[in-house]
Structures are given as C-alpha cells and as structure tokens.
Amino acid sequence: MNDNLIRLTDLEREVPFVLSDAERHEIEHALGHYPDGRAASIEALKIVQQHRGWVPDGALAPVAALIGISAADLEGVATFYSLIFRQPVGRHVIKLCDSISCYLTGYDALRAALEQQLGIGYGQTTPDQRFTLLPVCCLGACDRGPTLMIDDDLHGEVAPGAVAELLAAYP
Amino acid sequence: MMREPTMTLEQQLLVKPLTARVNTAQPMDLAAFEASGGYRALRLAIKELSPQDVQARVKDANLRGRGGAGFPAGVKWGLIPMGPDAGVKYLVCNADEMEPGTFKDRLLMEGAPHQLVEGMLVAAYATRATTGYIFLRGEYVLAAARLNQALAEARAAGLLGRNILGSGWDFDCFVHTGAGRYICGEETALINSLEGRRANPRAKPPFPQIAGAWGRPTVINNVETLNNVAPIVLNGAEWFRDLSQGKSPDGGTKLYGVSGRVKRPGVFELPIGTTAREILEVHAGGMKDGYQLKCWLPGGASTDFLLPEHLDLAMDYDTIGKAGSRMGTGLLAVVDQTHNMVSVVRNLEEFFARESCGWCTPCRDGLPWTVKILRALEAGQGKSGDIEQLVSMTKALGPGRTFCAHAPGAMEPLQSALKFFRAEFEAGIRADQAPAAGSPASSAAG
Questions:
Q1: pLDDT attached to residue B417
Q2: Are the CB atoms for B107 and B236 separated by under 8 Å?
Q3: Cβ contact (<8 Å) for B333 and A42?
Q4: How close does chain B come to A120, measured CA to CA in Å?
Q5: In this predicted model, what pLDDT tens digit does every residue of A24-42 receive, in sequence order?
C-alpha cells in the first residue's frame, strides 16, 4: 500500500483550514519586501510552519491565494525546499550535519548514538512526537564538529556520550 | 578577533579590516560601529565620490570575489547598466553559506553585522541599485536576528531607506532567509529562489548583471567580498593591494580557516597568498597528536584534494588553480590518516547527490550512480570496471556537460582522490572479480 496516496474521503473529512490573523499579518508584512507576491512564498510557508510545526495540506490554497499564485505552484516550492515540512514533525527537530568536516570529526558515532537513543532513523519521528531526526547541509560551524541543531539552537563538539544530557534539555 | 594588545582598533582595522571588529558574543551596535569609523566610507562615497569613482576604486583594488570563483567584483559591477534611465536594479548578497567545510561568512555576519550593511550600501551606491537583499540560509538564525537589528538601526539613523543622509538617494535592504538546499548558492538558482521559485539554475547568458532578479540588472556578491568594499573605498586601492604583503599578485586579506583533526580549528584573517602550511601549522596549530595529514581540500567540498607536498603553495586563486585544484572558499578541510578515501569521497558524493536540484540528467542520475559505486567499493563489493566507470563519470559530469557547476564541482574531489589514492579504490573490488577487462562501460553496466 502506498501511504502517499490521498483518498478523497480523507480530504473531505479534514477540518477546513483557516489562516490565523497572526499568520496572515506576518505574510502580508513579508509581501511588502518584494516587487512580486510569489517571492514571499518560501517566507509564507515558513510562517505557517513556525505557527503549526509543519505545513498542512489545507494551508496551500489560502497561502497561495494570499500571495497570488496557484496552490500547485506553491506545492512545487514547498516540496523543493528541505526545511519546509509537508508532514507533521516532532516538537523538536534535530538537524544533524552530515557534511565533510563533521564527517571527519566524528559524525558516524554521533549519528549512531542519536539513532540508538531516539530509536528512530533519518526522516522519522519518535512515537511520543518529541523528536524528528533529519540530516542537514554543512552548518557552517566546521571548527566545532561534529555539530547539530535542535530547533534554532546550534550545538558543537557533541560527543556521543553527551547526547542523553543534550536531549534532556528538550522536553 | 585576536587583537594585538599594543595596537588600537583603528590600527588593527588597517591590518585586519574584516575581523578587527568581530565580536560574536556582543557585536558592535550602530554607535560603537560609527565610533570605530563605521559608515565613514558610505559618507565619503555619498558626499565626495560618484558611483563610477567607487567602482573605479574597487576595480583598481582588484578585489576578487570571495565566494569561491574569484571573479573581480569591480568588473562584475562594471557590467551593470548605469545612467538615469537604467531603472530598477538589485544588489543581492549571497549569504547562503552552505559549501561543506566553510564557516567564514557566519563569523562576519554574527560578529560584525554592520560591516555587511555598510558594504551593501556602498556597493548599492556604486551600482545605483534600488533594493538589496541579503540571501541568508535559514539555519543562520542568529545572523538573521543581528542583521535585521543592524538594518533597523541603520534605517532609524537615516543611513538606509529614503533620501539617505539627505542625498536624495533611496536604497532599502531586506534579509531574505532560505529553507535549505545547497543549490541556492549557485547565483542563478539563488535568483529563482529569491523570486519564490524552485531553486533550479537558469541559463546564462543573459547574465544576472543584465537580466537577473525579476528580469532586472542584478549584482550578486558574497558576504566576505562585500565586507571588503567599505575599507577599500576608505583606504584606497593601493592600501588594499599592499595588504597581501607581496605574497600574491592579488590584494587584500582573506578569511582562511581549518577544520578537521587539528589543534586549533578556526577562521584566521591573513594576507591573501599565505601558504597553506602557515595556515595549518602556525594558525591552526598543526595536526592533533597522533594524527598525520593525509590530504586536504583547499576550499570546500567542490575543490580537488591536494597532498601534504602541496602545503607550501600560496593560497590564492591562481596558484591553487595551477596546482590542479581551486582555492574555492579558502577554508581547508584536512583529512587525517585514519580515513579511507573511498569513505571520504562517498560522504562528499552523497552530499552532492542529495543536493542536486534534479534539473539536468547527468547530475540527477550520475551523482546517485556515483554514490552507488562508492558504497559498493566501501563495502568491499566493487565489481571489475567500477573504477573505470568512476573515471568516466568525472568526464561525463564534468564542465560543459551539465546545466550548472554543481556536478562538475562534485567531480573535483572524486577525480583527485582517484588520481592520488587509486589503490584505496582498487582495494574495494571484490576478490572474485577479475581485473578490469574490455570496455569499462559494458562491464559496469552489467
């Protein structure tokens, strides 16, 4: 069975999506920075994600209407960018740098420790919805490898033995 | 960063114009920045210099683009249409620092955000740009906050926005944050991303200077490049050229750095043309005890590996280019003897395969294929002909075969690893596989 297939009945059952006033206001503010509404598409998706953790299907049409492009166009943008989440993620998103400098300074052991303690692999979320684990491009902190980000926090020189304590800070 | 105690900040700025002010714990606010000479170049340009004068200073200084390609910034600016009828023009700062092993622009943006704002302003004045965007990768949240703070301070002080310093000149600037994808650093893909599209590269020509963002003339400069602009305008082209102390025909300082198993990894502002040996052994303290240098990437994942015997080369664009690599971003990633090169290259190619935008076939299909072969070799499951296939990849995905420089960049570490460490690749061929025979393509296709 293909989990990606969306049945019409599921869409029909879905509660109608309404952009919050805050989301609408922030998107309208971003629109003011550009000569063309489309340019705000990534920022608009990020705004929705900031408020909801991810970008639900229902968000596409109202956001697209607000910036003046089609929902299909917006979905094309949403699915291109790796940090726009089109499925639910955990309360905290761990972005583990898998690029060369971190690879050279202990990435494999750090990844193993994370996967073992979380019980999940890349692209997965813990059953308690606490953590999602993702790989990320070089975080530009190569002098402190291996590195990762949890939400907006950058952590460097993360030893495998320090993972438990680090995770504990994100309930 | 590291200030000589005997030198004043003013003197330091003449030696290390990029980092003398850098303070990542607490960057200078507008008042402190102006007290240290900040926005003096902008005031000088607006009051006494024409845009062409500013362009001429930067051209005379031969400031070469610090994003990796080394194209002279003044020449790039010179391609922008000028004159009263030129209309809307854009200045975009490429702050999408994502080249693996590169961590210099973060330092400048977090540690001295007003320097970039002033650089943007002076560059915009020189090109008569009407709006600026700092295209910043989304993960740099601290840099975004500090740049937005600096822009707000500048706007409130009349340095940015309408009628700047009473001159009648308008220019505003915004931070545009991304949402991942390395390809956004490619300048035409960056323009697509800025316009809110998928970050596929565009065909060149037309070059962005003629038809860039929203079809308008657009200059795209790297963070470090723009940080050099105000000091050049203030101190002159000759001062800038002398900064390299005769170590290179190029002028200026360069943010070099080292990552990997060295004693003091970090970023160091040094005369351009400083040798890789000095950068590694003096500034980064050499290899950690117990580790020996096996090879090094001079400036990012998309540069060819060099060997310990290349350490005495000057780190400048032409010297490293002649040695068969590229200086790239100038931040060394050092590989120690504990690493197998097949694994190191596999890591690099996995990155490039994942980050391909998928627009053109050699890149979209060739990079995953490359990864598949490397994984097999790493597991000791390589087939006869695999190495020949990798060699042919370096041609088929090389310059001229793809839409942009992504795949050719990916081939640089692969081709140099095959050249210098072929035995490590050969060791990954399964024991029961006969040595390569016949056409490499036919044996690898089976």
A1: 98
A2: no
A3: no
A4: 20
A5: 999 999 999 999 999 999 9
Domain final residue, candidates A28, A48, A80: A80
* CB proximity list for B78: less than 8 A, separation 6 or greater: B55, B59
Interface probe for A, chosen from B131, B197, B305, B359 (most Cβ of A below 10 Å), is B197
A56 and A100 belong to one structural domain: no
- pLDDT for res B439: 46
Answer whether B139 sits within 8 Å of A80, measured CB to CB: no
Q: Are A75 and A99 found together in one domain?
A: no
Farthest CA pair distance, chain A: 52
Å between B11 CA and nearest CA of chain A: 28
Query: Does the residue A2 lie in any domain?
Result: no
pLDDT at A16: 82
Set of chain A residues whose Cβ sits within 8 Å of the Cβ of B265:
142-145
Q: Rounded CA gap, B172 and B258, in Å?
A: 36
Verify that A67 and A127 share a domain, yes or no: no
| pLDDT at residue number B192 | 98
Q: Which residue from B184, B176, B120 is spatially nearest to B148, judged by alpha carbons?
A: B176
- Contact between B173 and B226 (Cβ < 8 Å): no
| Residue A101 shares a structural domain with residue A72 | no
With an 8 Å Cβ cutoff, is A101 touching chain B? yes
Whole-number average pLDDT of chain B: 95
pTM of the model: 0.94
What does the pLDDT read at residue B441?
Answer: 46
Say whether B178 and A81 touch across the interface (CB within 8 A). yes
Q: How many domains does chain A have?
A: 2
- Identity of the residue in B102, B138, B174 whose CB atom sits nearest the CB atom of A33: B174
pLDDT in tens, B251-281: 999 999 999 999 999 999 999 999 999 999 9
Are both A65 and A114 inside the same structural domain? no
Are the CB atoms for B179 and A82 separated by under 8 Å? yes
Q: Sketch out chain B's domains with CATH numbers.
A: 9-242 (3.40.50.11540), 253-336 (3.10.20.600), 341-445 (1.20.1440.230)
The answer to whether residue A46 sits within a structural domain is yes
Residues forming beta bridges with residue A153, ordered by sequence position: A150
Q: Are residues A54 and A103 in the same domain?
A: no
Sign of the Cα pseudo-torsion (A67, A73, A74, A80, in order): negative
Express each pLDDT in B34-48 by its tens digit.
999 999 999 999 999
Range of the domain at A12: 8-80
Q: Token pair of B200, please?
A: 């596929």
Task: Choose the mutation target among B110, B139, B261 for the interface with A, i.e. most A CBs under 10 Å.
Answer: B139
For residue A112, what is the domain's CATH number? Answer: 3.40.30.10
Q: How far is A153 from chain B (nearest CA, A)?
A: 9
- Find out whether B181 and B355 touch, Cβ atoms under 8 Å: yes
What ipTM goes with this model?
0.94
Q: Is residue A19 part of a domain?
A: yes
Residues of B whose CB is below 8 A from A110: none
Calpha distance B239→A112 (Å, rounded): 51
Q: Is position A48 within any domain?
A: yes
Kindly determine whether residue A142 and residue B195, on different chains, have CB atoms separated by under 8 Å.
no
Are residues A75 and A124 located together in one domain of the fold?
no
The yes-or-no verdict on residue B444 having pLDDT over 70 is no
Chain B residue with minimum CA distance to A153? B141
Closest-CA distance of chain B to residue A13, Å: 31
Supply the pLDDT for residue A9: 54
